[in-house]
Amino acid sequence: MNVQELKQRFEQKRAFATEDLNELLVFAKKAYLYNELSAYEYKKIVEELESAYGTEHIKNQNTH
After folding, report:
1. By its UniProt entry, which Pfam families does this protein fall under (predicted)?
2. Domain ranges, residue 49
3. Considering the chain, what is the average pLDDT of its residues?
4. With contact defined as beta carbons under 8 Å apart, do 3 and 45 qualify?
5. Sign of torsion, CA 17 20 23 26?
6. Element (H, E) at 8
7. Which string of DSSP letters, residue by residue, matches the chain?
8. Which residue in 63, 53, 64 sits closest to 23, CA to CA?
9. pLDDT at 22 over 60
10. What total number of domains does the chain contain?
């Protein structure tokens, strides 16, 4: 699974789309905890999200 597939699954389960990094990370973590993602897939998705959104985006969210 990749980030695009994760976003599609998020939209299917939640009935709305998101680009919010934190929402996607929480969704991926829950999928991992419920064995919907392997440890390898979870790690790859987290790395993809962090690189796609960059550290600037993460820093900006922490200041609000």
Report:
1. YppF
2. 3-63
3. 88
4. yes
5. positive
6. helix 3-14
7. --HHHHHHHHHHHHSS----HHHHHHHHHHHHHTTSS-HHHHHHHHHHHHHHHHHHHHHHHHH-
8. 53
9. yes
10. 1
Distances (CA, A) of 58 to 4, 14, 16, 17, 45: 19, 23, 22, 19, 16
| Two tokens, residue 18 | 């998101």
Q: From CA 61, how far away is CA 4, in angstroms rounded?
A: 22
Mean pLDDT, residues 15-40 taken together: 95
Output DSSP code: residue 34: T
Cβ-contact 49, 21 below 8 angstroms: yes
pLDDT of 47 over the 90 cut = yes
Rounded CA-CA distance 36/29 in Å is 10
pTM: 0.79
Decide if 41 contacts 5 (C-beta within 8 A).
no
